[in-house]
Amino acid sequence: MPTFSAWDGTELAYHLRGDGEPLVVLPGGPMRASGYLGELGGLSAHRRLVLLDLRGTGESAVPADPATYRCDRLVDDVEALRGHLGLERMDVLAHSAGGSLAMRYAARYPARVGRLALVTATPWALGLPATAGHRLAAARARKDEPWFPAAFPAFEAWLAGTGGFDPVFVPFFYGRWDDAARAHDARAEEECNDEAADVYGSEGAYDPPATRAALARLTSPVLVLAGELDGGPSPELARRAAEVFPHAEFAVQPGAGHYPWLDDPAWFVRRIAAFLAEAR
What we know:
Layout: E1 3-5, E2 11-17, E3 22-26, E4 48-53, H1 71-85, E5 90-95, H2 98-108, E6 113-119, H3 132-140, H4 148-160, H5 179-186, H6 188-191, H7 194-200, H8 208-215, E7 222-227, H9 235-242, E8 248-253, H10 260-263, H11 265-277
Helix pairs in contact: 1-2, 2-8, 3-4
């Protein structure tokens, strides 16, 4: 397992999957170890995945200062990884909460970004949070699922702040609640750093006006990919995020939830690989 030193000396780890040109992958959670990404449905057959364990997650060390878990503070960890890899410019794929980290990185270091793929990326950095309304609308579309009657009231209560997180509504995050999804979800608790997650989006983490202004000048190609059944972000919210970038493609994966590489690996890999392979 390779490691490198962050700007403050924290030792960070990353995992390599596949062969070919490097693709730096930023996990979501927030602050979930990169293991849940696997090989991104087989994308490792097209690119060498460089899966970063953010500080305090997975095999990376816990920092001396917990305040460095904040999203904007993590940007220079990503830049340190680029330098460690010896890349003048790097292609980046970011999932979920990692999308806001990728946006903040691209805003601060635009010349270092080759292509940027934002996969079901939560656009907090743009001032576009997924609301309870977005999530409930997506959930209601699943009303014919056998697990819906037990899941929806608990989901509604959680979003209203009158109930805690309940595993009964986890199926809403997947396009298909099958054995693969169950196995994937079973890893979540051991992969997440809850303390770090609480800091990730804390006060000062985002500066939407400045980030929007910087990204409006980004010359790099961007793909914003949403899941048809995802509520956070919904396809409409993801489309609004894509409008910020001057050179963006927007795609909706049919039948996909928040983890589209699980729901239809072939569709996901085909779309991402095509974007990454486009002439520059």
